[in-house]
Amino acid sequence: MKLTIIFKCTHILIYLYYIMVKKNTRKTSRRTTKRNTRRTTRRNTRRTTRKTSRRTTRKNTRRTTRKNTRRTTKRNTRRTTRRNTRRTTRRNTRRTTRRNTRRTTRKNTRRTTRKNTRRTTKRNTRKETKKDKHVFIKKEGDKKDLRIFVINLKRNKDRWTKYEEYNKNIPSQNYIKYEKFNAVDGNYLRKNPSTKEDKKDKHYFDKIIMMWNAGEKQKGNVVGCLLSHIRLMRKIVSGKMDKVLIIEDDALVDMKLLKRTNLNKLKTDKMIYFGGVLRPLKFKDPKWNYNKVKKTFKRNRVNKIIPSRFKIGSTHGLYYPTKEAAKKLLTFFESKDRLRAIDSELAIIQKKNPELLDSIYYPAIVYLVIEEAQKGFSGQYFKKDGFDRSMKEY
């Protein structure tokens, strides 16, 4: 009995213990599971939050960097464009101002030089014409055989009046006067060759060398000028004349200077320039200095033309000391198959045939009346070439 009781009691105790243990294990397992789930959830939430935060931060940083880079690039481009535009505008304004100032200064200098030359020429012409009216040269000594021929077209009667006025005031026939020589009208000669000499000289239209763009009128003027000088040379040779001064109707003789000049001391074998235009070898030579060349001339005497340094243009004052000097030039012109304008031909002779022409008298005894010279057929070049044609200078 005792054993059974003990056994039952132990069995009950074991059962109770089992129940107690089971309860405790359930409690602990629940606690642990709860604890573990909390931990895992926390861990997972932390991880997810970290991941999401990283992603968002990356995304945001990318966005902000993009935004910032765009802003900075825009800002920088704006700044650079502004800076560059300012620089370019400054540079361009400087250039334009410099260009404009240069242009205006050139224009103003040209204007002032033109004005001054006009004023001086007018003043000088007035003075010289007044002086010349009162200076007469007697036909004696070295001026005994001197003759002054003026090449003048019949239709240009107004140009002859200044010489006519001078001739009227001559005290007597023993004084030197201006003699008229009828110039050849080239344009009339081409259409109406009336005399034998006209028919003989008509072939000069085939001889003449002109610029490709020169018109028939210009050609007629050039041939007329050339033939006028050639016919005067013929007259000198046929008339056996010595000491002949040929001038054109837009020029005057400085009678005071001519009176002072001893013609017997001048060369007799070649034609001498008594008036002309000093020119460089090339049409526009920036290195050529007009004043420097002019300073080399000795005053009141014959100076040699140096073809390597300068040339003399224009034909408004040519002096033939003897008929032989005129004959040499006449033979040269008549023997040539092709000819240019007379001033161009004489410029070539200075260089290639110095035995015919190589000297000028300085200062000029014959000077241009600028107002009349500008109205002539070659007056269009006066403004273009820029050479000094002031009265007493070459």
Please tag this protein with its features.
394 residues; alpha/beta; Spore Coat Polysaccharide Biosynthesis Protein SpsA, Chain A; 7-stranded mixed sheet; two-stranded antiparallel sheet; 58% helix; disordered C terminus
How many H/I helices? 12
- Rounded Rg: 54 Å
Distance between the termini: 174 Å
Q: How many strands, which pairing sense, and closed or not: the largest β-sheet?
A: 7 strands, mixed
Q: Can you give the helix content as a percent range?
A: 55-70%
How many E strands? 9
Report strand %. Answer: 5-15%
Order of helices and strands: HEHEHHHHEEHEHEEHHEEHH
What is the CATH top level name of one domain?
Answer: Alpha Beta
Question: Which structural class fits the helix and strand makeup?
Answer: alpha/beta
Note poorly predicted spans: 381-392
Second-tier CATH architecture of one domain? Alpha-Beta Complex
User: Which strands sit side by side, in order, in the main sheet?
Assistant: 2-1-3-7-5-8-6
CATH topology of one domain: Spore Coat Polysaccharide Biosynthesis Protein SpsA, Chain A
What form results from the Cα inertia axes? rod-shaped
